[in-house]
C-alpha cells in the first residue's frame, strides 16, 4: 500500500506533469477545485509551491491543500509563502481532538498536536483562507469541548467552520486499527452510511 511504503510504489512527477494531469481531469469533468491526495503534500515545499504557481497562472481553479499542518505550524514562513496565492484554501486535518488522541492515532510526540493548531494561527495571521477538520471517531466529548475552546481562542470562525470526520471501516482500515489496538467510538461502514453523508 502506498501509504505504508511510499518509497516502493509509483514514481515522482514534476509540478508541470501534476498540473497537466489535474487540469485534464478537471476540464473534462467541469471541476473548479483541485487537490493532491495521499501522504503529506507540504513535505515537498518547493514542489508544492511550483504547482501552486501553475494553478494560480491558470486562474480557473481553487486548490484545496489538505495537510496535517505540522510544517506550517513549525515554520511561519510557510504560511507567508502560501499567502502569495489567491487560488488556495487550506484544510488542516487534525488527528484527534487532544494531544493524547493525536499520539494514539499517529504515534507522533504529543507536542506535534500543538503545531497543527499553530498552523491555523499562522495561516489566519497571513490571511490564508483555511478551516480545521478533526477526526472525531476516537474522541471524547471532553476533548472535543477543550479543542473548540482552543480554536475559539485563536479565532471564533474556526469553531463555526470545524469539519467533523468519522472513520469508514473498510477492511484494510479495520485491520490496521486492530493491529494498533485502537477501537473507534463512532465508525461507519459502506453498508451503514448516515443519510446526511449520502
Provide structural commentary:
This protein is α/β, with parallel strands linked by helices. The protein has two domains: 160 residues, TIM Barrel (Alpha-Beta Barrel); 30 residues, no CATH class. The protein is built from nine helices and seven strands, in the order αβαβααβααβααββαβ. The C terminus is likely disordered.
Chart the SSEs and their pairings:
Elements: H1 15-29, E1 33-34, H2 45-58, E2 62-67, H3 70-74, H4 76-82, E3 88-94, H5 99-106, H6 111-125, E4 130-135, H7 141-154, H8 156-160, E5 163-165, E6 167-168, H9 171-180, E7 187-188
Helix pairs in contact: 1-2, 4-6
Strand content: 5-15%
Count all strands and give the number.
Answer: 7
Please estimate the helix content: 40-55%
Mean pLDDT: 91
CATH architecture of the largest domain: Alpha-Beta Barrel
Number of helices: 9
Order of helices and strands: HEHEHHEHHEHHEEHE
CATH class of the largest domain: Alpha Beta
Biggest β-sheet description: 5 strands, parallel
**Largest sheet: spatial strand order:** 1-2-3-4-5
User: Rg from C-alpha positions?
Assistant: 18 Å
CATH topology (level 3) name of the largest domain: TIM Barrel
Classify the oligomer: single chain
Which structural class matches the secondary elements?
alpha/beta
Query: Segments where pLDDT lies below 50 for 5+ residues?
Result: 194-198
Amino acid at each position: 500500500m502506498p501509504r505504508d511504503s511510499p518509497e516502493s510504489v509509483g514514481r515522482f512527477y514534476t509540478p508541470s506533469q501534476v498540473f497537466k494531469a489535474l487540469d485534464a481531469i478537471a476540464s473534462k469533468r467541469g471541476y473548479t477545485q483541485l487537490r493532491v491526495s495521499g501522504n503529506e503534500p507540504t513535505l515537498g515545499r518547493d514542489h508544492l509551491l511550483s504547482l501552486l504557481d501553475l494553478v494560480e497562472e491558470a486562474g480557473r481553479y481553487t486548490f484545496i491543500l489538505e495537510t496535517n499542518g505540522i510544517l506550517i505550524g513549525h515554520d511561519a514562513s510557510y504560511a507567508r509563502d502560501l499567502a502569495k496565492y489567491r487560488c488556495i484554501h487550506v484544510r488542516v486535518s487534525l488527528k484527534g481532538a487532544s494531544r493524547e488522541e493525536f499520539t494514539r492515532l499517529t504515534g507522533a510526540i504529543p507536542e506535534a498536536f500543538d503545531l497543527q493548531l499553530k498552523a491555523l494561527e499562522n495561516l489566519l495571521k497571513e490571511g490564508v483562507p483555511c478551516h480545521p477538520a478533526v477526526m472525531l471517531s476516537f474522541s471524547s466529548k471532553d476533548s472535543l469541548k477543550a479543542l473548540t475552546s482552543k480554536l475559539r481562542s485563536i479565532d471564533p470562525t474556526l469553531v463555526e467552520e470545524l469539519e467533523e470526520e468519522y472513520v469508514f471501516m473498510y477492511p484494510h482500515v479495520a485491520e490496521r486499527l486492530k493491529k494498533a489496538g485502537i477501537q473507534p467510538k463512532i465508525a461507519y461502514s459502506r453498508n451503514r452510511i448516515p443519510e446526511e453523508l449520502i
